[in-house]
Amino acid sequence: MTDTNIVDLRSDTVTKPTPDMRQAMADAQVGDDVFGDDPTVNRLQEKVAELLGKEAAIFVPSGSMANQTAIRAQTQPGDEIIAHADSHIYHYEAGAPSGLSGCSLRLLPGPQGRYTASDVEAAIRPLDSHFPQSTLIVVENTHNRGGGSVWSIDSIAAIRAVADAHNLKMHLDGARLMNACIATGTPPAGYAKYFDTVSTCFSKGLGAPVGSAVAGTAATIRRVHRFRKMFGGGMRQAGIIAAGALYAIENHIDRLSDDHDNAKRLALAAAEMPGLSIDPDSVETNIAYFDVDENAGTAQSRCQTFREKGVWMLPVAPQRIRAVTHLDVSRDQIERAITVLGNVLGSQSAV
Ligand code: TLP
């Protein structure tokens, strides 16, 4: 099967740079970024700081490194971080909060990856030498395992008030912050102002091949710079990849609404199919989770059959499949995916 026949919905991380993006990367001016000499990286960092309304930003290789350098810069070993039980920093960053920062996690429940200010209030540890100290709250927006769900400004503001009352810091895992911005019409700085640090990714829906950033005060970003080096993320002529990120910010934010429309279209169609369940209203941005009915096989077996017919999705639990829309999936390809899913599920007898 050729690349163009495949509808790859496994993640928005799979996008390939467009010809114009590649050209911008080829043309990039570069220097040694560990010395602060790369003009393209510097331009990207200034642009991200401005977009997020922060004093400074730093380019890092990945979303995981963005989150983990921000965590390391704002905690001490023995501290406790408050986060959702479904958060990316807990499930998918290889245990880094404990491995790299020596922190434990206090995990909160809540539908679609969202918790409330009163959940946070109840989780904060008293000032007593027996307890780990709560120092940092992490919000993920949009929320990956929550189904690309978007946090409201009101709920974030309420959590900020609790954080201020107890002198806690707040970090935003904004790997897909731009999806939240496009879904709600809130500018990036409108979310970022509630947080001490914000991470954001260029290599997800924005379609750049590599890279993320952390933004915050100049003092915090200086600490992040040190931990980026310590964690092995100091890059040299990184302008080549920063140019892809700059291109992505300048050209690929507004089009995220197409991805959201495509995810909704897929969810609405799948909701009508036998063997799959999804509430289309739960699809707020570019991520959709489908539950596979027990009598329709496992997520693994369904994904295998879809894959053989050119539709790639991710089994994320025994009965759960994830589909993510992005720059490299057109509306026509979504229609093709719907046809494949319909044919496979309609013709399922023995699974
Ligand atoms: N998420 C990836 C996988 O790791 C699951 C994906 O395919 O969705 N924060 C959030 C909310 C993320 O979804 C991801 C990537 C990251 C951070 C980490 O980014 P990278 O992969 O660049 O380290």
- The CATH superfamily of the largest domain is identified as Type I PLP-dependent aspartate aminotransferase-like (Major domain)
- Separation of termini? 24 Å
In one word, what is the shape?
A: globular
Give the biggest sheet: 7 strands, mixed
What is the helix/strand order?
Answer: EHHEHEHHEHEHEHHEEHHHEEHEEEH
List its salient traits:
globular; binds ligand TLP; 2 domains; 351 residues; 4-stranded antiparallel beta sheet; alpha/beta; Aspartate Aminotransferase, domain 1; Aspartate Aminotransferase, domain 2; 7-stranded mixed beta sheet; 17% strand
Give a short overview.
The chain has 351 residues and is α/β, with parallel strands linked by helices.
What does this entry look like structurally?
With 351 residues, the protein is α/β, with parallel strands linked by helices. It folds into two domains: 3-14 and 255-345, Aspartate Aminotransferase, domain 1 (Alpha-Beta Complex), CATH 3.90.1150; 31-251, 3-Layer(aba) Sandwich (Aspartate Aminotransferase, domain 2). Helix content is 41%, strand content 17%. Strands 2-8-7-6-5-3-4 form a seven-stranded mixed beta sheet, with helices on both faces. A four-stranded antiparallel beta sheet has the order 9-10-13-12. Helix 1 packs across helix 11 and helix 6 packs parallel to helix 7 (153-165). The longest helix has 16 residues, at 256-271. The protein starts with 6 loop residues before the first strand and ends in a 5-residue tail after the last helix. Bound molecules: ligand TLP. The site of ligand TLP has 15 residues, from helix 3. Ligand TLP is lined by residues 11, 13, 62-64, 67, 88, 92, 140, 144, 173, 175, 201, 203, 212.
